[in-house]
Amino acid sequence: MKKPKSKEFRKRHRLQEDDEIKLLDSWIQSQKPDSGSNPMAFPPLPSKAPIGRLDDNTFSRYAGVTRFDQLPISQKTKDGLRGAKMVEMTDIQRASLPHAICGRDILGAAKTGSGKTLAFIIPVLEKLYREKWGPEDGVGCIIISPTRELACQLFDVLKSVGKYHNFSAGLLIGGRKDVEMEKERVNELNILVCTPGRLLQHMDETPNFDCTQMQMLVLDEADNILDRGFTKTVNAIISQLPKHRQTMLFSATQRKSIQDLARLSLKDPEYLSVHEESVTATPTLLRQIVMIVPLDQKLDMLWSFIKTHLSSRTLVFLATCKQVKFVFEAFKKLRPGIPLKCLHGRMKQERRIAIYSEFCEKRSVLLSTDVAARGLDFNKAVDWVIQVDCPEDVASYIHRVGRTARYKSEGKSVLFLMPSETKMLEKLEAAKIPVHLSKPNKERLQPVSDSLASLLVKYPDFQPRAQRAFVTYLRSIRIQRDKEIFDVMKLPIDEYSTSLGLPMTPKIRFLNQKNKSKALSTKPDLAEPEEDSDKEITLKIPRKKPDPSNLQEEEAEKELLLADSSDEEEGKTSEVLDAIPPATRVPKKKKLKINIHRPVGTRVVFDDEGNALPPLARIADTQSAKGTLLDPEQKAEYYRKMREELKKVDKEDKLVQRERHREKRIKEKIKWKEGNAEEDDNNISGSEGNETADRRHKKRKIYFNSDSDDGKQTEVTTNGVSDSVTLEEQEALALKLLNSMHS
Ligand SMILES: Nc1ncnc2c1ncn2[C@@H]1O[C@H](COP(=O)(O)OP(=O)(O)OP(=O)(O)O)[C@@H](O)[C@H]1O
């Protein structure tokens, strides 16, 4: 048992701390532009270069400062770092720590595995230490991570480096059942490490949740957090945080979006991109291979790879949860000879954390969706990263491969590209990512499709899983944003279905529709012009935005709803239902069907006898109304006219709408003025009324309108209605008021 410290000891200790804080504060003061002194043997900060890269000069000034113990930080943090065996700083730590400790806003960018975590954990601890933050001060810093696993990892680093400090810290992530307990304690925590959804949940639901004193906000994987999946949640969070704070954003693929900066109210931030001039955007010790693999051979390749790398720790990325589940279950049954694990956003939280820890500890193959793509360190022990499905963009590629070759360790990655996705190679090259194109060794290929087919026969309840994997993969391709790379129509659908062991290709509604429209467009003579126009409009309908971070969005929502989705079969999409062969399909409740044979938004025009005219008849009148088919030129002319007409109609509609709005506004104004006048009359009539009238006058604020040069003031009432009053009128008004007050 630890011996309790004496009162004398504690007092001495406190005094020492006070002295230390004074010294640290004076260093920070000395970094201000007009200060001459530098009380510590530490180089002054470089002159500010917001949104610019660090120049060589900057680094040479820091040449002598390479170790954590040379930094102006507290002894407690230094001890914590020493305990965690952190001695030398990495580039991003050297570049950003001095600025961050001084309280500046930071946009930090550095390669994956280069130590960005410490670049924000240390300033968090130091800020609260210098402010002498205690339990009664409540939430002082908030660190937000896009995924739960990453939040756990950040929390571990915080605990290890900050173990000599006295701050309380909490991990707030979705999927945990103890939310009520969290609600009771959250106000006592000084540092919150959280996912956006859970933080917002506390902001919304926890009584007295107070972060008005918060000093520092950190977004790890900032580009991801500020991305579409979290937009609403993040905006809602930001709106509840104090404006006066230090904000730090870190990512390996940092953006310099002005919009982001404005959203987060960053003040003159330091953009510290330490590897911007580097020859490669990925770690130097990472060897990256690309193989061209047809869709129907991907599982064969993956199986062969696993079988031939039984002593490696391998992380495998697949596009969807259903694929991960299917491949995991199927391969497990086929016994590859190495433990298999799977990780995806639909698993229970405890299981997710357990899998993550197990994979850190033991050699195995982890099949995962993009939940494991960002930030996770896995004890720097991943040997191979295999991307079975192409990442949605270059940033996603960088983060996925970044799970290996971390901090001075080596790593290898393989990307399977389908022949239709080779455009990705150009994009990788343009982003300074050096990849080696390698041909699959056909002799070592171990086909697995036949074994999968036997499995599906042996375990019939396994078939829907394969079907779901099939459908969700195609769907994931369909909703990808980059159409140069991803084209669902180029995929060998039947072959892919067979490769999953399915006896027949599931029917997919969206593919059928696309095929149909393709057939129509390739047979112009058979296609009715009206159907053509329908098709044109259908294709233009904006789709739901592709959502690569779908999982994360789901997570944010899940965290909000507290619905711990149970990993199982609910939530089938309509395409999934389509995929199940008609015989096994559960009949759906019949829906009221409305047949619409014209494009939505087209106006129906009637002729003199009251018959509806086809659109063609209205524009190309006689010839087409009589059913004559149009040649291509006429057709183009027809479309042009149709578009013009639609534009005209649209304009007219808008005008009418605007007029209606105006009338409504005028009516409301008149009503309001009438009501006000009545109130004034009533108020002025009695003695009580006089008081109210006085109060009303007092409530009015008077602003000087700097734009007006005639010396007039603009009076703006709290109701927002303004009128002009001259100086004389105001003096008279003031006199009147004074008189009435005296009498
Ligand atoms: N100064 C250091 N000395 C020794 N090890 C370090 C140091 N800084 C970081 N590390 C180790 O390097 C590994 C990667 O660090 P970290 O997870 O912070 O990288 P990152 O830049 O945040 O990566 P990502 O972009 O993937 O999130 C970790 O295992 C961490 O413990």
From TrEMBL:
Domain Helicase C-terminal per the UniProt entry, residue ranges = 294-456
Q: Pfam families, from UniProt?
A: CTE_SPB4, DEAD, Helicase_C
What InterPro entries does the record point to? DEAD/DEAH_box_helicase_dom, Helicase_ATP-bd, Helicase_C-like, P-loop_NTPase, RNA-helicase_DEAD-box_CS, SPB4-like_CTE
Main EC class of this protein?
hydrolase
> Which domain of life does the protein's organism represent?
Eukaryota
A molecular-function term among this protein's GO annotations: ATP binding
Q: Where is the composition biased (Polar residues)?
A: 714-723
- Give the record's keywords alphabetically: ATP-binding, Helicase, Hydrolase, Nucleotide-binding, RNA-binding
EC number from the UniProt entry: 3.6.4.13
For the Helicase ATP-binding domain, which residue ranges apply? Answer: 97-272
Q: Which reaction does it catalyse?
A: ATP + H2O = ADP + phosphate + H(+)
Region Disordered: start and end of each range? 515-574, 669-723
Family classification: Belongs to the DEAD box helicase family.
Q: What is known of its domains?
A: The Q motif is unique to and characteristic of the DEAD box family of RNA helicases and controls ATP binding and hydrolysis.
Q: What is this protein called?
A: ATP-dependent RNA helicase
